[in-house]
């Protein structure tokens, strides 16, 4: 498989031989099963771990990141329910406790800017952005394997700094939605799951992990495990999940002052002529009994600059 940047970019880049490394991650040590996404898109994967060897691990540089749910939400559930569930998914990762001090990871995720009108994943280096969450009710565009549940597109630079992340959820099939008497995330109560439905909260937590720069884990009970069967619920962080988010966002990490604004400022609407910059990885969510494939695209922006030099990838 190959991927090529858009012809309107300055540089055209082709990648070859990446069938096993389209969502790259660093090689963990023998005591951990988790993998982190990295900047290397053509490095080999380590057979025992499934993690890609090489590259720089990616992470959000700020301690504060926002997300914006598309205002339509889904035909199956309203905006308030979807927003509360997505907030709960991110809160579960924030609830991890790191090291002997049991300090939280140095990352906060909030819907502070409210809903977005835009309904397509994109990154705009010269204008505003939104880290989008959108449901696909009618058509699921990633059908090569037939069992994909979601897709998260992450845009980053060669230094591993995440610029943007957009999360799409497949709502064309039956989803189990936790019921609640109140739309507040802390009051959501799950009353069980129907066997032939995929659990929406489990999907959201898994994709929130990709949003944070985590890759799939081979630990069977991990939230970042690549498979989710109908009727299965996986909403509790394992020790492996905690280790992953604590490594990516250690409590003592040096960050700039908290700023939830996306790069270029918040933009609710789509850009009519978006130009992606850096590398974009799109890990597809877990399917029914199938290890999910990973789709990558690489593009170079006309004016995208890193802190030290132009990104020519």
Summarize the structure.
With 313 residues, the chain is of the alpha/beta class.
Order of helices and strands: EEEEEEHEEEEEEHHEE
Total number of strands: 14
CATH class: Alpha Beta
How much β-strand is present in the residues?
15-25%
The name of the CATH superfamily reads Collagenase (Catalytic Domain)
The helix content is 10-25%
Based on CA atoms alone, the radius of gyration comes out at 18 Å
CATH topology, anyone? Collagenase (Catalytic Domain)
End-to-end Cα distance: 18 Å
Described by strand count, sense and barrel closure, the largest sheet is: 6 strands, mixed
Instruction: Label the structural class.
Output: alpha/beta
How many independent structural domains?
Answer: 1
Strand order of the largest sheet: 6-8-10-9-13-14
CATH architecture: 3-Layer(aba) Sandwich
Shape: globular
Compute the average pLDDT.
Answer: 77
Give the low-pLDDT segments.
1-30, 180-191, 288-313
Q: Counting H and I runs of at least 4 residues, what is the number of helices?
A: 3
Topology:
Elements: E1 3-4, E2 14-15, E3 25-26, E4 36-37, E5 64-66, E6 68-69, H1 79-94, E7 108-110, E8 132-136, E9 150-156, E10 162-170, E11 175-176, E12 198-199, H2 200-211, H3 239-248, E13 278-283, E14 294-299
Parallel strand pairs: 5-7, 6-8, 8-10, 11-12
Antiparallel strand pairs: 1-2, 3-4, 9-10, 9-13, 13-14
